[in-house]
Each structure stands twice: as C-alpha cells, then as structure tokens.
C-alpha cells in the first residue's frame, strides 16, 4: 500500500512543480507587459492520518499574488501616461458592445496599475488593455473635484468660447513731488464678447494736492476719432491713515467715495467702468491694488511715471491643443490661445489586502470580500502612493530570478519522475514474487 502512496505522492509533486513552471512561464511571457504583477508559487504539505499511523499525502502548489510589489517606473513621451509609486490602483471601467453606438461600460468596478493611457477617438482616456480611466469630475466654475463619485474621464474637444475681459490689473509708481498737471499713461488691451482686442487708455494727471492724482479711463475711437471717456476718478495717497505713498481713498467723478483704507477690512481699489466694445456694453474693473499696500499703484520718489505691469483676464476663442496630466492627478486641457482647463482629477484606490483581489485579463483586478473595502483617496493621502506623470510602471518581474526558479522547478519535476519510475520498478518486483 505504501508503494502506491509513494506513486501518488510523486505524481502530486509533478503536478505541483508543473503549476510552478506554469506561473514562471506566465511571468516571463509578461515581463514587458505594463503594470503586470508576477505570480509566485508556494508549496503546502498534504498529510493523510489513519489513527496513530501516518501515510504520505503529497504536496499542493498554491499561487501567490504580488499585487502590492512595485514595478520599475520609466519615463515615456506620452503626456497622458501615469505611474503610481507606492500603494494603490487606478480605477477603470471596461467598455462593452452597445447597439446604440454610444460607449457602454461593464457595471463591475475594476482596478489596474497599467497607466499607459491615451485619448481614444471618443475622447476617453484608455490604456493599452482597452480599459477607460475613471476619476472625479471638476466643477469648471470653482475648480473643485466632486469626490463623491467616480466616472469615466472623457475629454470634450469642442473649442473654448471667447471670454470678455472683466478686470484689468495695474501696477505702477506715480512720482511724488511732481508738478501739477504731470501726466503718465498706460494702454491696456481688452477682449470683447467675440474675442476681439480693443485698446483701453489709463491716463494719470497730477492734481493740485501733492498727494492727489486723477485717473481718466478712455476708449480710443477706431480710426483716430474722438475717444470715449468711460470714467474719471480721484486717487488720494496717504489719507485715512494709510501709509505714505499708498492708496488711502478713491473718489468717482461726482466726488463720491468708491473705497478707502480700512485696516480692519483690507480691500482692493476697484474702479468699475462700462464701455461699448464690439457693439455691446461691457463692465470692466480697474484693479489698482490693495488700499494701504505697496501692491499695485503707489506714489514714491521718482522722475517720471513708472509702469511696472499691466494685465487683464479674458481671451479669444481657442481650440484644444493638447491634454496632459499632473503629479496631483489633475487632467488638464490646453488650448491654442494659451488658456487651460482642469477637467478631472485622478484618485487612487487602495485595499487592506491587495493580493486578495480577483485577477482579470488585461492587468486588471476586481474587488473581493477578502481584499477588504475599497478606499478612494487623493494622490498621496491616507498612505497611498504618489503619481508620476508622463511615466509607466513596468512588470515587477526579474527574469534572472524567474530562470533561477525555473531551474529548481525543473530539477524537482525530474526528481519526482524518478520516484514514479522507481515505485513502478518496485511494484514490478512485487508482482514477480508470484513466479
């Protein structure tokens, strides 16, 4: 009976080593697969007990996942590629066939470390296995992500409409001690509702008071005609307790107070004007900086009016030029007019036991009860890994180590075959006792 047990034990050893060789083959075959996680093998002794006796039971090979073992990260020339360094997975959705022509997705949540994403023909960010990246949508008005739900990230490739100018910011120094009537001017360019540029003149003139200047905001007429005055303001420096040389008060053309220095309520000197640009009235704020601060317009010593900077918001229409990802997980659309918009943010999904995830085709995984509850976090939060943009994570397979394990498995398999032939010879000798 023990010879038959030995024969069965040797066969179980052959099966176990065959399983190990199969895992090694899988690892070697996928050594260049992005985000692949190797499969290791451990062996478990099987014992058959019969009362106080013990009979050989054999061995069982168990496959062990290495989902939490980091692979090598390499930089690539794909601006949409991402690699996680540390714990966590990308959340992805798998497209399925749809009769309507629109892309439908498998309802099962999937996870992957394969971050070789590219934008497909429908605007989805899809990796080499065909899975679509999921993330948090971003409110275009506030720029804040909606962290309550994950959805497939889709890039809208429509043109960006023109944005009319709503504010012009001026930083300059008016010369203290200048003679009455001393002038200085700056011309800003503002956008109308259709994205066309128009000049806007900001002209300064020294008043009778040493610390008072008049600002006239005008729109030059096309073709050199009479300029249209949009507003006149008086700017007083060092008044109402403001430090010398800083704006203390602003009055409109009728002498009404527009704003003044108040240390308890810091505010900017905003002058509102309305002009006709492109056939429609357009309100624009002229930002002279904070009351009582050196930020913006000041009155310090100098020989002449000194412009530091002038800027404005708004812009012309723009077409999508490129899409890129950032280290904080933001997906940014860049337009050819210089504008950019954050359209989504990529979080990281982590599990208590990632090795217990169900393995799927395409380097993807599915959640299981043994893996624990999924936790969706921002990049780097709650112990999750960091993100490297423009990079991919390779397979965590060391070919040299796999071949070393292959040699051991091959020798063990051969040894078990010898046990089979030896047991067979002994059984034959037992049969020959009948002669």
UniProtKB/TrEMBL annotation:
Keywords: Bacterial flagellum, Cell projection, Cilium, Flagellum. Residues 388-433 form the Flagellar basal-body/hook protein C-terminal domain. GO terms for cellular component: bacterial-type flagellum basal body; bacterial-type flagellum hook; cytosol. Its main location: other. Residues 83-152 form the Flagellar hook protein FlgE/F/G-like D1 domain. Transmembrane segments: none annotated. Residues 175-314 form the Flagellar hook protein FlgE D2 domain. It comes from the Bacteria. It is found in: Bacterial flagellum basal body. Residues 7-37 form the Flagellar basal body rod protein N-terminal domain. InterPro entries: Falgellar_hook_FlgE_sf, Flag_bb_rod_N, Flagellar_FlgE/F/G, Flg_bb/hook_C_dom, FlgE/F/G-like, FlgE_D2, LlgE_F_G-like_D1. GO terms for biological process: bacterial-type flagellum-dependent swarming motility. Pfam families: Flg_bb_rod, Flg_bbr_C, FlgE_D2, LlgE_F_G_D1. NCBIfam families: FlgEFG_subfam, PRK05682.2-1. Belongs to the flagella basal body rod proteins family. A flexible structure which links the flagellar filament to the drive apparatus in the basal body. This is Flagellar hook protein FlgE.
């Amino acid at each position: 009976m023990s010879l038959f047990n030995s024969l069965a034990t040797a066969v179980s050893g052959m099966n176990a080593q065959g399983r190990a060789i199969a895992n090694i083959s899988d690892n070697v075959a996928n050594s260049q697969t992005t985000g692949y996680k190797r499969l290791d093998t451990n062996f478990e002794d099987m014992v058959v007990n019969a009362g106080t006796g013990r009979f050989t039971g054999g061995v069982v090979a168990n496959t062990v996942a290495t989902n939490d073992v980091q692979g090598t990260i390499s930089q690539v020339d794909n601006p949409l590629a991402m690699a996680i360094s540390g714990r966590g997975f990308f959340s992805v959705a798998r497209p399925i066939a749809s009769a309507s022509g629109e892309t439908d997705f498998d309802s099962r949540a999937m996870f992957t470390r394969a971050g070789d994403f590219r934008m497909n023909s429908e605007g989805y960010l899809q990796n080499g296995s065909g899975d679509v990246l999921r993330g948090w949508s971003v409110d275009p008005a506030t720029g804040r992500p909606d962290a309550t739900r994950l959805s497939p990230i889709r890039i809208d490739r429509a043109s960006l409409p023109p944005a009319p100018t709503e504010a012009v910011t001026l930083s300059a120094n008016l010369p203290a001690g200048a003679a009455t009537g001393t002038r200085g001017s700056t011309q800003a360019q503002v956008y109308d509702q259709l994205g066309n540029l128009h000049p806007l003149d900001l002209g300064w003139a020294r008043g009778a008071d040493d610390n008072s200047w008049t600002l006239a905001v005008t729109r030059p007429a096309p073709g050199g005609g009479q300029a249209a005055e949009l507003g006149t303001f008086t700017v007083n420096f060092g008044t109402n307790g403001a430090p010398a040389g800083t704006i203390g008060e602003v009055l409109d053309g009728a002498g009404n107070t527009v704003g003044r220095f108040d240390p308890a309520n810091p505010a900017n000197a905003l002058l509102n004007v309305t002009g006709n640009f492109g056939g429609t009235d357009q309100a624009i704020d002229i930002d002279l900086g904070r009351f009582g601060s050196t930020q913006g317009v000041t009155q310090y010593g100098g020989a002449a009016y000194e412009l530091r900077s002038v800027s404005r918001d708004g812009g012309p229409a723009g077409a999508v030029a490129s899409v890129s990802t950032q280290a904080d997980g933001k997906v940014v659309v860049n337009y050819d007019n210089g504008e950019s918009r954050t359209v989504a943010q990529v979080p990281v999904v982590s599990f208590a036991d990632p090795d217990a995830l169900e393995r799927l085709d395409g380097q993807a995984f599915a959640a299981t009860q043994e893996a624990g509850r999924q936790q969706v976090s921002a990049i780097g939060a709650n112990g999750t890994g960091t993100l490297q943009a423009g990079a991919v994570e390779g397979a965590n397979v060391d070919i040299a180590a796999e071949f070393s394990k292959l040699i051991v498995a091959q020798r063990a398999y051969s040894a078990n075959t010898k046990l089979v032939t030896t047991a067979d010879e002994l059984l034959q000798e037992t049969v020959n006792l009948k002669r």
